[in-house]
Amino acid sequence: MSEPTNTNGKATSNGHAQTNGQAGANGHTRKTSSRKAVLQDLAALIAQAEGLRTAAHNQMQQANGLVKALKTHRRQNRVIETTLANIRQLKGLGV
Q: To bridge 90 with a disulfide, which of 63, 71, 85, 95 should be the other Cys (CB 3.0-4.6 Å)?
């Protein structure tokens, strides 16, 4: 491809597209714009990771609460079963 030339036969540009931060005809933007986009993407990913960590923390707390409740229920159930067994023994003794 040939460069556009002026009347003295010299090229009017250095071969690179002139940009103002907007996407050019070739689809490329200035490096500062792409760095900002990368930083924004990175910030969004970090925010998403923090949200995921918070959700995981909340789920872990909920799971721990359920385990605690199940252990309490199991202990109470054992006490009831032991008490009922003792009552049956006492009835067998005629008390």
A: 95
